[in-house]
Protein: Tetratricopeptide (TPR) repeat protein
Amino acid sequence: MHCAGGAGPAVHRTILCLDVEGYGRRTNGDQLAVRAGLYRALRRALDESGVPAASCYCEDRGDGAMILIRPDVPKELVAGRFPARLAALLERHNGGAPPDARIRVRVAVHAGEIHHDDHGVAGTAINTAFRLLAADPLRDALRTSPGVLALITSGWFFEEVVRQNPACRAAAFRPAQVAVKELRERAWMRPPDTWPQEDTAHALRLLALHPGAEISVPAAAALMDVPDAEARLLLGDLGVVERAEGRYGVPDPGPGSGLAPQERSAALRRLLGWYLGTADNARRLLCPDRITAPPLPDEPRRALRFATADEARHWCETERLNLVAAARAAAAEGHHDIAWRLPLALWAFFFLRGPRTDWSEALRSGLASARLLGDELGIAYVLGGLGYASQNRWRFEESAELFTTACEVFSRLGDVRGEAWALHGLGYACRRLQRYREAVAHHRRSVLLAAAVGDRRNTGRALTALGYAYAGLADFGSSLDHFEQAHGIALEADGRTLGWTLHGLGYAHHGLRRLHTAIVHYEKALDVFREFGDRSGQGETLYNLGRAHMQMSRPDAARDCWLRALAIFEDLQTPHTAGVLARLRSLDPRS
Structure:
């Protein structure tokens, strides 16, 4: 036999050793079945625990395995998530296997310096791990239990990793005196019986943190910090009621959360961050022209992405109650940086679809959170959001005050995009207050600021708003000119605002008494608003389309438009309802 020298330098590794109970008493066929089942469960448990295969070095030991894990993988995964997942997978394997192919394992975990050489690996730390694996207390614990996995860690690993990480649940471990060959150590052992009961209870406690009554699989995955596939399996194993496809009832938390404060806060933040990230991804499709708040320092993980606006809209509609509850929970639980961002991310859904009372409540809570943080940028953004919410309730003086304050803060902070956004809202409030010259001034500055930062889309929006301001002055020639400029930008840069430029063109032609042309543009605008699900735009267009039909002595067409507009405005809970009802009554004075 050729023996080569040259061991490599010492490298640090987490050491994971496994041994199958009663392996040698089985037939060759059963041993092969056990090995296949073990490695299948082992690979999946490591993967679902967040331990990449590329970070692992594995040596087969016949009746078990040794895995060395690189130091870039957090050690707590090996003592926390991994053994719980492996135990669940072995339980599932055993449920469908004949008695002699069932698997129960002892697992030892340690960490230290190891050397690679031509024959494999060596090191005192590896010896220690295998001595732990052979310890009588560990063998006895597995032998006397119906469970499938008994875990032992070195004293060092317990103190430095398990005790420091809530996910490892140190309270489930008990001390074990190990005396195997040269090793004399006080190790720490987690008995087999603690895996199913303890982890089930822990998962239920995590799920109970969810602020809404129903939770989706991806939200549960974020909350429990596991992959979606594992979350789905866990929800099934826990016996949680599946109320609809992929949606489960949230369990009753019972008295107290049963979670350490640090773990509770981290889990809730993962969930709230997931809702924020997914809502903002929906906003990018539903309302890409709206500016949004800067991202969180700890960017949400695994936020959903949507291929189409319809997908985004469906998610928002399905999660509406959870999103409102999440905004409340963020403020109540002290996650104030999420509390002020979340209602802004929900802009698209609540502005386009309603009901807007939920949005207003979330914004008010968000403003309180931004003020608690002393976050001036957050305050400015939420003031702007509240300005738009006030417009929805036709409180235009209040809206103008909110936007004026927001503009001042954005200007002081040097946030040009934010100032342009707030000026847009301020100009609209002035238009509704019939202060059209002020509106023209605000919209002109908004055009200049948006153009200065190369924001083509919002330059077009500001030009559209300027067109409406000139229409308020009855200067329909200037109004038409600005709508045409905005329409050109919308065609090349932003199909979503195309609806409002088409409506504006119709409005300008309407003011110039070109009713046939106005109706053509209104109908085109209506098609665009329907395509993008902008119900507010549909209602506004139907109202003005009805006016145009009435001026052309088409009362039946006008009535049809106004009835459709009324249904939309009533659903959105907007004050436009009164104006539409007045128009309908004018068609039949006796009603």
Observations:
- The mean pLDDT is 89.
- The longest strand covers residues 105-117.
- The longest helix spans residues 261-286.
- Residues 195-332 form one domain.
